[in-house]
# Entry
Amino acid sequence: MEKIGIFGGTFNPVHKGHEIAALRFYDRFKLDKLLIVPANIPPHKQIAGQVTARQRFEMCELGFNKKNMSVLDLEIKKDSVSYSFDTVAEIKKNYKNGKLYFLVGSDMLLYLENWYKYQELLKLCAFVVAYRNGQDRDGILELRDKLIKMGAEIELLENEPFEISSTELREHIKNNNIELDKYISRKVLEYIKEKKVYEK
# Structure
């Protein structure tokens, strides 16, 4: 059975923390393919910074160019809010006989019961919960056990903390006050500078 990973997010900007998480996800579950899905209009947050959905998509294409990784414009093409259920259901149509693994951050998992059609979503794929060292592992395990009792498949993916947030990165790009290549891959950084992303 083909194993398909799904990694969504705003990727604003895509940075080395995202790239490391993607590789860890790919290797840990021995995925055959990893689909990166940048959001257009996410339901739970606003897109900060002067950046277009197409620019975030193009940055993802530059940042996630390893192994069998593909960047989908499935949500970017929509003019409406992107719900995870709709996205995963659409991907499932193309991989009817495959097993889907959906990567989510532990912070987002805490709000799962507020997600659109979350119970149906849990039936479509295995949830892989990325949590950082130092987070409340007991709380995450308790929530996982609750979801498993509902029939869900929940896996844990331990992730090293990335020392800088996307918000901080956007500020540093705008002010040009740190060496950014430590945090953002060269091709993405060149794109940001060429397109003057986040400079306004």
